[in-house]
Design goal:
Blueprint: E1 9-11, E2 14-16, H1 26-42, E3 46-49, E4 59-63, E5 68-77, E6 85-87, E7 96-101, E8 125-130, H2 131-135, E9 139-141, E10 144-148, H3 162-168
Parallel strand pairs: 5-7
Antiparallel strand pairs: 1-2, 3-4, 4-5, 6-10, 7-8, 9-10
Length: about 200
């Protein structure tokens, strides 16, 4: 036996070398939850983050005057060149799944395709899916349950669909900004010179 040969371990009755350690993306997952929270608050939707690792949902949105509550599960992928799939359990106990494409750059082990400039960083994108839209799309392979965006009919139509959450909570639509002239004018007072 050669000394430099990697050890082969038994894994699921198949002989293969041990896998690389898994990337720790907990900070990125937390960032996705806070980004969602910020978007909801900017949309005028009362929202708060649940405790870490709370089963079933990550963010709660509410309409206190109507007594409505919405449980939102946040899923994210940090890499710009991810495989267009995200993990999701088959029976999620939530009302919406918000999938965040964080677009933080290209994965370290993948090479940039010819013609791609830069490091791959782009603005994050958020897809707001009613959970019923995704439950039938969950596929279990290799012990993981995932949703492939390609399997979700018209998935691009769910980009930034905060109105779906507003409707669920029975909140009125957001009024567009008024375009009847310039915004508020600042009045600048002139100071009289101080007597010396």
């Amino acid at each position: 036996m050669v000394q430099n040969e990697p050890k082969v371990v038994m894994n699921d009755a198949i002989r293969r070398p041990p896998s690389k350690p898994r990337l720790d993306s907990r900070l990125e997952a937390e960032a996705a939850e806070f980004l969602l929270l910020g978007h909801l608050l900017l949309e005028g939707i009362h929202a708060s983050k649940a405790y870490t690792r709370y089963p079933g949902f990550d963010v709660l949105a509410a309409n206190p005057s109507a007594g409505r509550l919405c449980k939102i599960q946040v899923k994210s992928r940090w890499a710009t060149d991810y495989d267009r799939k995200f993990p999701l359990k088959q029976s999620s106990d939530c009302d919406f799944v918000v999938f965040a494409e964080l677009n933080r750059g290209y994965r370290g082990y993948r090479r940039r395709k010819a013609g791609q400039a830069g490091d791959g960083r782009k603005q994050p994108r958020f897809f707001v899916f009613p959970v019923g839209k995704l439950n039938s799309q969950v596929k279990v392979t290799g012990g993981w349950s995932k949703v492939a965006l390609a399997d979700v009919a018209g998935f691009e139509e769910y980009l930034e669909r905060w109105d779906l959450i507003r409707t669920f909570l029975k909140l009125p639509p957001v009024a567009p900004p008024k375009e009847d002239g310039p915004g508020p004018q600042l009045r600048v007072r002139s100071r009289s010179p101080r007597p010396t």
